[in-house]
Amino acid sequence: MAFPFACNKCLLFLVVLLHASAAIAATALDNSIDLASLLAFKAASTSGGGGTVSDNIIAANWTTDVPSCTWVGVRCSWQYPPRVVSLNFSSFSLQGTISSHLSNLSFLSYLNLHNNSLFGTIPDALGRLPRLATLYLGQNLLSDPIPPSIFNISSLIYVSLALNNLSGSLPTQVLLPPIERISIASNFHTDHIPADLARCSTLQEIYLSENKLTGSVPSSLGNLSELVVLALGNNQFTEAIPTSIGNLTKLQYLYLAFNHLKGKIPKEMGNLVNLQVLHLHVNGIAGSIPISLCNASKMIVLEVSTNNLTGPVPATLGKSMPILQKLQMAENALSGGLDFIAYLANSKDLNILEVTTNQFEGVLPDAYGNLSMNLQYFLVSLNNISEKSLQDWGI
Ligand SMILES: *[C@@H]1O[C@H](CO)[C@@H](O)[C@H](O)[C@H]1NC(C)=O
Ligand SMILES: *[C@@H]1O[C@H](CO)[C@@H](O)[C@H](O)[C@H]1NC(C)=O
Ligand SMILES: *[C@@H]1O[C@H](CO)[C@@H](O)[C@H](O)[C@H]1NC(C)=O
Ligand SMILES: *[C@@H]1O[C@H](CO)[C@@H](O)[C@H](O)[C@H]1NC(C)=O
Ligand SMILES: *[C@@H]1O[C@H](CO)[C@@H](O)[C@H](O)[C@H]1NC(C)=O
Ligand SMILES: *[C@@H]1O[C@H](CO)[C@@H](O)[C@H](O)[C@H]1NC(C)=O
Ligand SMILES: *[C@@H]1O[C@H](CO)[C@@H](O)[C@H](O)[C@H]1NC(C)=O
Ligand SMILES: *[C@@H]1O[C@H](CO)[C@@H](O)[C@H](O)[C@H]1NC(C)=O
Ligand SMILES: *[C@@H]1O[C@H](CO)[C@@H](O)[C@H](O)[C@H]1NC(C)=O
Ligand SMILES: *[C@@H]1O[C@H](CO)[C@@H](O)[C@H](O)[C@H]1NC(C)=O
Ligand SMILES: *[C@@H]1O[C@H](CO)[C@@H](O)[C@H](O)[C@H]1NC(C)=O
Ligand SMILES: *[C@@H]1O[C@H](CO)[C@@H](O)[C@H](O)[C@H]1NC(C)=O
Question: What whole-number distance in Å separates Cα of residue 389 and Cα of residue 395?
Answer without folding.
Answer: 9
